[in-house]
TrEMBL record:
PANTHER family: CALCIUM-ACTIVATED CHLORIDE CHANNEL REGULATOR, ZINC FINGER (C3HC4-TYPE RING FINGER) FAMILY PROTEIN. This is VWA domain-containing protein. SMART domains: VWA (SM00327). Residues 758-944 form the VWFA domain. InterPro entries: BlueCu_1, CLCR, Cupredoxin, LodA_C, LodA_N, VWF_A, vWFA_dom_sf. One of its GO terms (molecular function) is copper ion binding. The keyword Metal-binding applies. CDD domains: vWFA (cd00198).
Amino acid sequence: MGISDVSIHPAIGIARVGNSDQFFIGPEKPWETLEPTGGFKDDTCRVKRQGARFRLFASYDDDRDPTELSTDDVESIEWNVTLANKKATTYPDRRNNLSEWDRISEDEASIKPGTVTVTGGNDRAVVSEDRIVLPRKKDPDELGSFPGMADVSLGEIRTDSHGRLIVLGGKGESDTPHDLSKETFADSDFHNTGWYDDTADGAVTATVKTNEQTFEEIPAWVIVGPPKFAPGIDNMVTLYERLYDVMVEAGYENPPSKPSYTEHIAPVLQRAKEVEWIASPSHATHTGDMEGISAAWDHPVGKTHDVIRNRVFEKLRKPFAFNAHHSGDPAMRISPGTRVVFDWVSYSHDVTVEDQPSGASWTGHPTTENRGFSVSHTFTTEGVYTFYCANHVSPWGMKGAIVVGSDTAADFGDWFTDAPRGGATPTFDGSTADRTGRSKVTVEVGTYVGDMPRIAGDDAHLPETYLELFQQWKDNDYIDDWSSDWDDGPDPPATVTHAGLDRAALENAMGGAFFPGIETGGLIEYLPIDQLPILDPTNYQGPFRLDHDAVDPGDLTKYMAVPWQTDFFACGFGTWWPASRPMEVHPQGRNTEKDWARDLIQSQRGNDTANMVEDWHKLGFVVEQGEEYVEVDRCLKQVPSITLLTTSIDFGDVPHGPMGSRTTKRAIVFEVNAPTADVELEITKQPTEQANIRTPKTRGSVTQTATNEIKTIRFPVEYDTDIGDTDIQATIEISATNSSGKWTIDVTASTIDWETTAVSLVLDRSGSMSESSGDTRTKHDTLQAAAKTFVRSMLDGYGVSLVGYNHEASALQDVREIGTDVSGGTSVRDATIDEIESGLTPSGATSIGDGIKIGRKTLNQVGQYAHESMVVLTDGKENTAPYIADEAGTVDERTFSVGLGKPENTSAPALETLSGNTGGYLLVTGEVDTEDQFRLEKYFLQILSGLTTAEVALDPEGTLQEGEQHRIPFQVTDADTGLDIILLTPYPQVVDFRLETPIGNVIEPWRAHADPAMKWVLGDRVTYYRLSLPAEVDQDRLESDGQWHVIMSIGRPETKPDRDELDELERIVGRRDDETRGAPVLADERQEYEHRLEDVLSVATGVGEGVPGGRGGGRRVNKRSAHPDSDPRRTGGRVGLLPARSQLLKALDERFAGPNRVRTGCKTPRHFVSH
């Protein structure tokens, strides 16, 4: 079967002006939220235009669903667009004294550039400029007395690659060519003769040729309106709902037998909730005044919520009541001879007589009339008169009564309370207003009942069709199709449909409060509301489809405000269209509500309306962020804008250690835009209630900024772990010294015990350790290097003992605490390293079991450590009792084992069982050659990371050559509390080894030496940095999450700062120190141009117990379950490197490109060579 028809959708498209060359496409699916790439403004603070995209859909002879046509489906597509702006043609109606103005023809006063055509795909055409001639004053001495002419463009049209039409409106240009000052407006809301703007509306047609048919003059319409500044929130009454009511009246739509909760009810309730983000409670919100009902209803308000459904329906605004002389009652008592004026205050009502006393001759007014009409009658015959509105008596109960005479009984029977003529009257409470003794009284016809939506305008209510659907919902007669998986609504449909396009476009436009409106409408002062072109049923030829023979381009917008910005100004007083023109907003990062048009309306800049015309594009958009709608992209900042980014500070659980008291830092951060004045902030309330919270800086300031420039003010906040309470709460207040701005920041923190570990190094000193390890060193040398690296890298506060074993074991050193000194002033760290160098001379047989026994004995002698572990190393098989099996049953310390050599040449099975049963694991080096000379050191560091519950985040290897600089990136998250960056190389003295922070600050050895939260260590074959996070490298700037870099080149470590760096050091940390620590650089090693490197970059993630100043020390991380290969229950304890988290798996610098450039979880290292 062939194509029977082709139609354009949306039938009415909505475009919006913007002064940017960039644009986005308006909504094309119901429930769709607009999220243009880069936001609703470009980088220069200009508003992007909203384009209306039109698509072609084919209908078929066999009644299958319509499908979209593109240039791939047909021979050709031609689009024609005819836009017009006819606002100036209505100047006779705009409160002008025509005797003072020259007559201008409608053709001269219109902007009618003619029809523009595009064809096929990726075509483009600019709507030509058209000259407008504006009316002028006859008096030559008055403003606007010479001819006013201007050439105006209404936009452009394009096609996309599929041949769909995109209509883009004008650039938001509003002006007057007269000698009228822009500070002067005739009437600052609607009537500004002599002005023009570039909004428009007009006809869209298409001609489509297929292989067999040609479809010509396919009609649609486009409206180009002002921007919608709260694009994610629908208007309280949408244009779709308003026109759906018109379509029902015209016979093009049939209301459903039952409303759908999702389609008909939920969107209205959702708008009632969301309007609070763009209008203060005193203006427009509804969820907070439900008289005992929850302050905010949650979807679905369903079949078990009878009270809420009834209360919501009661609150809905319904223009279906008679109001007897301002009493609110539908019934009143008057004296004989009183004249009653029936005054129509809303639309489509009549006054039809139901009953009256015998002999009375009142005829009522049974003809339907609209707002502004009135009729009167003098009542002389005593008795009871009842009347109703035939249009709204059913189901709304729009009835009234007049009692004439003081002695006449107010007996209405069941007139108000039962169902005569259709239903009970909701405003009747049994009382009758007493208006006797008056010669004249009024009855308002069509008074509103209820106040939702609480917006201005005589037509600001749900259309009658929707009110009837809501009444069915109230009566529990509806389709409950809401899903429990939804929050505020369903996801948009997966595909674009013809009906969805029609609905999505109109739901994004305003359909109530036409005074005159936003996109379309008109001022009912000049046309009855049912004769406004957009609402006239006779103007349509199908569902939502305007008849091009009934409506001309420009007709839908000609009675809108000119220029449109004047209505945007005026309608800030009273709630009209908050979704398009917000009232009050919540600026991003602030806790306070602000006037959306602040600094513009009621400013000191002169005429407020002129300000809106000039600066409309600088106002902010309200967008959804998380569970809030906040104002963003606001560029109108005549007064400084100060945004608090840090609304609270939570230090979390900070461990007391590892080097005693720790000072942890955070910062209170403000962003400031101050184009007209300097800004100074000061701390006006210190956290004096908590001595361990300090704010070392009490004032901060920025100088005047450029218009779009943002500067930052930071206040450091420090927390000491050894002062005051262990759990604290404090408050800091900061105020602006030259404004009323004040901010309160809550601070919380707690100190927890830093849990340390005692480690016993049980090391093989049997005779075989004198054999070659395969890398030009003996096994003894390799062990010494690895053990010394382990001890050098241990955290202060940890304990270490040293056991050497051959055919028998001995304790070379009992457990001593790293970070303390032994007699003579030697540090425990150095004393342990000395013992490693002197106490492991190879000789004898192998009794691993005896080594384990003595290692446990050294651990059992101490009790101040939270955990105990052993590290056992052997190069061969045990051959002397006691054996591992003899001691394994008594071991409850977590044990890590390392086999130096091949598994078959070591006691790997027994060690594997021992480690797996105690929560440790076994690592076996395999054969080691010069390419793998750091393998044992790396294994020891891997074990050390397991003891400190850190993670190995990156493990690259490489060769560093003269003249090269290697930059190795690694990622840090805001959960990370510390960093160990360890470099293994035979010659650390001639490697310039630095760190670069995410914002580009460089940390060198001298800088780490000067800061108590940093550490740099230089030793044999190893050098490393240790940092607490966040790190304060630059004054008041704390750095943590982001991409860091290790930087390496051949050169001496920078152990002393230059003069400029000394000045910077004094500024940041408040001291100068010309002395540095660390081993001397060996000058005779400078000629070593090529060094084998393996970088083990350990990033402690979310764990405090191994990290200086870490904030998560109470938390346990089971690294064994971090990767399948790391679970000893699966692998018997054999693992490779600890896996890094996925976000840390970043590629190295491109010079390290290759399939093995990043490793995690690998059993053996792979090398890269930089070129």
